[in-house]
Design a protein that fits this description.
The complex is a heterodimer of chains A (199) and B (261). Chain A has 199 residues and is an all-alpha fold. Helices cover 74% and strands 0% of the residues of chain A. Chain A is built from 9 helices and no strands. Chain A is globular. By secondary structure, chain B is mainly α. Helices cover 67% and strands 2% of the residues of chain B. Chain B has helices at 11-23, 28-40, 44-60, 70-78, 84-93, 99-118, 121-141, 145-148, 155-174, 177-193, 201-208, 222-233, 243-246, 254-260; strands spanning 5-6, 9-10. In chain B, strand 1 (5-6) and strand 2 (9-10) form a beta hairpin. In chain B, helix 2 crosses helix 3. The chains are: A mainly alpha (199), B mainly alpha (261). At the A-B interface, helix 2, helix 3, helix 6, helix 7 and helix 9 of A face helix 1, helix 3 and helix 4 of B.
Chain lengths: 199, 261
């Protein structure tokens, strides 16, 4: 995505007060950051707010970026991930309430995920193409624990390599791989359970 | 995950290689051992299948399109720059909507609640009955729709029509026999009753009145009291002239008497 020298020059221009350079950075990275936030937070409004917060933080801490320590995209993703963790902690109380509701409905043999499926005739082995299926996978992703979710988002949705993910998450590569495997398997089990219920 | 050994590979080793195997990075002996373990281990085999399926689901997710105004909002919140060019770009990215569609959309927003009410059978029935009653009333009154075309809506014409109609109504009302009889009866009763009323004597009673309450406070005000007193007392003052003695003056009107109280 980036040429290290080009990005380093861009950052230097930004620090020097070149607003066009900053605009270029925003144009280049806003889509990626928005998608990470959207997949992690689950809602478009939260993703928009979080993306703005990420760029505000980037703008303030841009002088601290050192291109010799790592790629700019890794630095940006690290900022994003840290803000997402903060957001996750802040909204923990809300999620606890949600999980209580979900747990209650599960005891009543409800189908929390399948309720979100509009087209119940979709085959379980179909490719994830239609919007309804995409929303179902998105909802299943939100059910994963944050550690597993961030790992699979960075690997399978952002195509980052294990080393970069390990840098962002500040864990060993082995742990990253393990989390990715568990996250993928857990997601598949959730979706299989969902489609088995609606069939 | 149970840490069992199967075909020379432990489960935790399988777990470490799982990502590489799914990525297609394994080859040779390592791949053979991995596959053999997956086939023989009851825990790792399903894990491989689930992980591959989960990766397939995730890879099927498409990238989400950010909102059109996101870049503008970011720049405004960071540098405070809200350039015209960015706004134009954001506008260009939005679908073109004609003014007619915009008007329709806004009108629909206002009229939708009314339309929901109108569509109810109860409202339609009420409206039908009201229309029927109005048409019957107009027919009985002799109003024809063709007459409406000849109506002039100029202000002077409307005023003239109003005055003409008012005069007709008053004329009609006063010529009703019962109204005439009632009015004449009332006049007669008034004539009979008026002389018998105690006039100035009431003043003495008023002096003995210890309640200190005015009899008709609503009729009094400071501007009228002086002149009305003089006029009311005029017939009783003799030195005003000979005409007052010889002329048969009428009784002081009731209104004048009321000012004495």
């Amino acid at each position: 995505m980036e040429d290290v020298q080009v990005v380093a020059m861009l950052v230097r221009r930004c620090i020097a007060g070149d607003s066009a350079a900053w605009e270029e950075i925003v144009q280049s990275y806003h889509r990626r950051i928005y998608n990470i936030c959207y997949r992690f937070a689950g809602s478009g409004d939260d993703a928009q707010d979080l993306t703005q917060e990420v760029f505000i933080k980037m703008y303030r801490t841009l002088p601290s970026y050192d291109h010799t320590k790592g790629a700019f995209v890794t630095w940006v993703t690290t900022i994003t991930r840290n803000l997402l963790v903060d957001h996750f902690r802040k909204t923990k109380q809300d999620r606890m309430t949600d999980s209580i509701d979900t747990a209650a409905s599960e005891h009543e043999d409800a189908q929390p995920l399948s309720e979100q499926i509009q087209d119940q005739s979709a085959p379980p082995d179909a490719h994830v193409r239609s919007r309804e299926v995409g929303e179902t996978v998105h909802a299943a992703l939100a059910k994963l624990s944050p550690e597993l979710r961030e790992a699979v988002i960075l690997r399978d949705l952002q195509d980052m390599d294990y080393r970069e993910i390990a840098t962002v998450l500040k864990v060993p590569e082995g742990t990253v791989k393990s989390r990715i495997n568990r996250g993928r398997a857990e997601l598949a089990r959730l979706l299989q359970r969902t489609y088995r219920q609606v069939m | 995950m149970p840490d069992q050994t199967s075909n020379g590979m432990r489960c935790n080793e399988f777990d470490l290689l799982l990502s590489d195997a799914i990525d297609g990075a394994l080859s040779g002996v390592e791949l053979s051992r991995f596959q053999a373990h997956a086939q023989s281990c009851t825990a790792c085999g399903p894990l491989l299948a689930d992980a591959e399926a989960g990766r397939g689901w995730l890879k099927g997710l498409t990238e989400v399109e950010p909102p059109a105004n996101l870049v503008t909002a970011i720049l405004a919140s960071t540098t405070g720059v809200d350039t015209q060019r960015l706004r134009v770009n954001a506008r260009v990215n939005q679908p073109q909507v004609s003014w007619l569609e915009r008007v329709q959309a806004s009108l629909f927003g206002y009229l939708e609640p009314i339309w929901v009410t109108v569509r109810q059978p109860r409202f339609a029935m009420s409206f039908g009955m009201a229309f029927f009653a109005l048409s019957v009333g107009l027919t009985v009154a002799g109003v024809k729709p063709a007459d409406l075309a000849s109506i002039s809506l100029r202000p002077t014409s409307i005023k003239r029509t109003y005055q003409h109609t008012q005069a007709r109504v008053v004329h009609y009302y006063e010529n009703i026999r019962i109204v005439y009889e009632v009015e004449s009866l009332a006049r007669q009763v008034k004539r009979n009753v008026a002389p018998a009323e105690p006039g100035p004597a009431k003043q003495k009673d008023h002096k003995n009145d210890t309640t200190q309450q005015p009899d008709q406070p609503q009729e009094r005000n400071y501007s009228q009291s002086d002149t009305q007193l003089i006029l009311a007392s005029a017939p009783s003052i003799a030195p005003l002239g000979p005409c007052f003695d010889s002329c048969d003056l009428p009784v002081v009107p009731v209104t004048t008497y009321r000012r004495f109280v």
